[in-house]
Structure formats: C-alpha cells, structure tokens
C-alpha cells in the first residue's frame, strides 16, 4: 500500500496542475498538451450544455483513453436546467455552460470552486431543411408570416441569444414554439415540423445532410462564450479538475474546433 506521504505528494501535484490551467485573469485557461496530465481514476460526472453533446462525447472518449481507470458520465441539457439541478444538490463534478449568465448563478452561490474558465465560443446560424426550399436568406426573412419558425425558450442560452439576434437585426419574429434546448429546435426543422430555427453553427454541422445552414452577418450575430468549472461539492474533485484541464488542452481544443467551436 502506498505510504501516506506519497499519496499526499500525488494529490498536491494534481492540484497544482489545476491551478496552472488558469490564466492570470482567472477567466481563460491556456492550452496544454496531453503529456501534462497525470492519470486519474473514478467516475467523473459532467453536466454540459446540449450544444456540447457531440464534442464532449468525443472529448470524453479521448480523456478515458488517456485515463483508463476513469469513467466520464455526461448529463446534457439546457444550461439553465443543469444549474437548477446542481442548485438542488445533484452530484455533478463539472459544469460546462453555454453562457456566462448561468455559470454566474452558481459562482454567486459559491457552488463552483475557483474561477471558471472560458474554453470555447460559438455563433448563431439559421437552420433550414436541406436545399433551403423556402429560400430563406436573411434574418429579416424569418419575420414572414407564412414561415414556421422555432427558437429556444428565452430562459435558456440559445433562446436568449436568438432574442438578442432579432433585436440586433431590428426584426420582430414570433416563433411557433419555444423549445427547451437547441437539439429540440434542430429536431423540429429536420422532421419537417418547422421551416427554420435559430441554433448554433455547431448544431447545424452536427445535423449533417439532414439540415442546411444560412449564415448570419457578423454585425448582427451573437457570440456565445462557454465557461467550465469544477463544482464545490464535486465527489471526484481531482478527476474533475483533470477533465477541465483536458478540455482546455491542445488535444481538447482540437476536438472542439473539429465540431465548429471557436477559440476562447
């Protein structure tokens, strides 16, 4: 059995790794390489925004390949829903939000250990059916009365961003329905229940040939910032910090980029 001194030194080394991952302003962590990580073990429960589903699933696979004694369990949902669950005591180790507002709800209650780091950015895009049969070309087109448009509920990040987009573009859009997460908006369009929706660029890419995207000009578009942090009550704090560090590593950011996410 390892001596207590050896265990203590290992724990200190891992905690030092987590501290080194934060920038001087405590907001954006510099990237590291996979060689910087010490093998960790145990289950790591990650609560992450729906728009991170595909990218984080691949990151989880890469993380466990490097840490075979660890198991990453994901819970994907709207950031606001995940905040409510954590606030009610859900046993999450890591929280990754699609906006700063929902992360702030937890930091204000001291439920995130240390300062969260922004690990990725995203932009909005109009999602339409393949071939864009309705000929939607601009945000203004979404105001047409004969179009069935869906967005996320303004209580969740993608809905808040859509509302901000319409304000920036000076357009009044009345959605046919308000969905609880961005994946539900994609489903409405790909199933033919809606003509268009407002989602993240990454979600249109993830839909593949089931959907098409209409670009939004940069002067009216909205940039989403994604922060991540270890929860104060994390059952596996060391593993949680190692996962956060991996997300911010060179390998983690390569995976995020491959799914369309921008750098922080």
Polypeptide structure, described:
With 264 residues, this protein is an alpha/beta fold. The protein has two domains: 42-121 and 225-258, D-Maltodextrin-Binding Protein, domain 2, CATH 3.40.190; 122-223, Periplasmic binding protein-like II (D-Maltodextrin-Binding Protein, domain 2, 3-Layer(aba) Sandwich). It is built from nine helices and nine strands. Strands 1, 2, 3, 4, 5, 6, 7, 8 and 9 form a nine-stranded mixed sheet that branches. Helix 2 (53-66) packs antiparallel against helix 9 (250-258). The chain is elongated, with a radius of gyration of 20 Å. The model is unreliable at 1-26 (pLDDT under 50).
In short:
The chain is α/β, with parallel strands linked by helices and 264 residues long. It has helices at residues 4-20, 53-66, 79-87, 100-107, 157-169, 182-190, 201-207, 237-247, 250-258, and strands at 42-49, 70-77, 94-96, 112-128, 149-152, 177-179, 196-200, 212-214, 223-231. The chain has two domains: 42-121 and 225-258, Periplasmic binding protein-like II (D-Maltodextrin-Binding Protein, domain 2, 3-Layer(aba) Sandwich); 122-223, D-Maltodextrin-Binding Protein, domain 2 (3-Layer(aba) Sandwich).
